[in-house]
Amino acid sequence: MERQGDFPYASGDLSRLLSDIGIAAKIINHKVNKAGLQDILGAVGTTNIQGETQMKLDVFADNALLNAVKWGGQVCGVGSEENEKYTAFDSEVNRKSKYVMLFDPLDGSSNIDVNVSIGTIFSIFRRNSSVGDLANINDFLQPGDQQVAAGYVIYGSSTMLVYTTGHGVNGFTLEPSIGEFCLSHENMKTPEDGKIYSINEGNLLTCSEGVQTYVNWCKQTDKKTSRPYSGRYIGSLVADFHRNLIKGGIYMYPGTTGAPSGKLRLMYEANPLAFIVEQAGGKASTGTGRILEVKPKDLHQRVPLFIGSKNMVERVEALIAAEKANA
Ligand code: AHG
Ligand code: MN
Ligand code: MN
């Protein structure tokens, strides 16, 4: 609400939308905390558009978010990791709203059953189509630099909501006894240099030479640059990103020979975290360019991701460029 004044034509719709997302986050959090007690662990028996196994909590979180923002009335449509097509809401209230939202309802699915931190990621755009119309695909396929807000929720040792509206990054911790997100991390900034590198190293031999050179550099001993760095990889993007944001570090999911665009999705994983990291003073790159400038062609397209502390991202970019120049 305090930031609302920064937007010349703000009507409070975005604040209401963020509060609806907060409600969904509390509902998902409640369920995540009970995982193991109720019959909510494990797979549903279906696969999503990516051909990945859908977990019961993926589906629950997807419904919780969709319903919270639909009935909140501040969006005309949503796109989700769990659904092949976007959903356009056709009630009069929704048609009249200004925003669309994209989300990864539950990130880190493979960690659900083993009690490791998972998350929710969201991205919000102003619609391109006219207010009053049904949302269409062009409302969603906008480059990341057009985002008006983005954020994530981490269901960790405590539950946090971290978001930006383009005026810095703020983090709110859920105070369970009153059920409210309270401002705990004001104006978050990420260190320009870090000592943590996060990558699924099992894939390293199938990554490009530039990436391999960088990872090997991270492991070399050098007192001046505090190397060797620490390798930390949970396998939940939100959790790996959140730790690196606070402590300084780089998260990498490069392309591999088998999957040249990597694994992560542009619209609801890379873009929102890229907006946040830039607002915190860090960088997000495809290895050859800024994530936020990628022109999307598909709701579910994948993109290589190098994200985190500015100097670390720039170093790996330089090694990738050098490899290209030598080829
Ligand atoms: P999701 O659970 O939404 O499908 O995302 C999983 C992603 C991301 O959270 C994580 O960093 C990455 O997959 C891990 O992939 P690998 O197991 O290939 O390392
Ligand atoms: Mn994910
Ligand atoms: Mn997911």
CATH architecture of the largest domain: 2-Layer Sandwich
| Share in β-strands | 15-25%
CATH homologous superfamily placement of the largest domain: Fructose-1,6-Bisphosphatase, subunit A, domain 1
Major β-sheet annotation:
8 strands, mixed
Describe the structure.
It is a single chain. This protein is an alpha+beta fold and 327 residues long. It has two domains: 2-185, Fructose-1,6-Bisphosphatase, Chain A, domain 1 (2-Layer Sandwich); 196-326, D-Maltodextrin-Binding Protein, domain 2. The protein contains eight helices and 15 strands. Helix 1 runs antiparallel to helix 2. The radius of gyration is 19 Å and the shape is globular. The mean pLDDT is 94. It binds 2,5-anhydro-1,6-di-O-phosphono-D-glucitol and manganese (II) ion (2 copies). One manganese (II) ion is lined by residues 58, 81, 104, 106-107, 109.
List the helices and strands and how they pair.
Layout: H1 13-34, E1 43-47, E2 53-55, H2 56-72, E3 75-80, E4 87-88, H3 92-95, E5 99-107, E6 118-126, H4 137-140, E7 147-155, E8 159-164, E9 169-175, E10 180-185, E11 196-198, H5 209-219, E12 230-231, H6 237-247, E13 250-253, H7 266-279, E14 283-285, E15 305-308, H8 310-326
The chain binds 2,5-anhydro-1,6-di-O-phosphono-D-glucitol and manganese (II) ion (MN) (2 copies).
